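re: ur question from earlier - yeah i can do the single chain one, its not a big deal. heres the input i used so u can compare w yours
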Amino acid sequence: MMFDNVKPIGISARAAEEVKKIMQSKNIPAGYGLRLGIKGGGCGGVSLIIGFDKQKPTDLAYELEGIQVYVEKKHTMYLIGKEVDFYEGADARGFMFAEAN
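and the output i got, formated as tokens:
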């Protein structure tokens, strides 16, 4: 049984706002969405990645906060229960993956 309405990952309102700003300011072409996934290797296991890309045949597609999100099927298990958030502080600013509330 497929659960098409279940999304493995979430996005905070702050992160969604920042993604929309970047898509507009960087003129990300229509048809592109937010790519979430993993980069493997090393002794630390995997690193989570975020970027902009077109949908590929092996992707699962979701809409989160009005943003098209693409996740390669085989990466889904690493993203379950995570949420994309945006951090802005004196020491750093950027996207991060946090445990979903």
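The CA atoms of residues 15 and 86 lie 5 Å apart. not sure if urs matches, ping me
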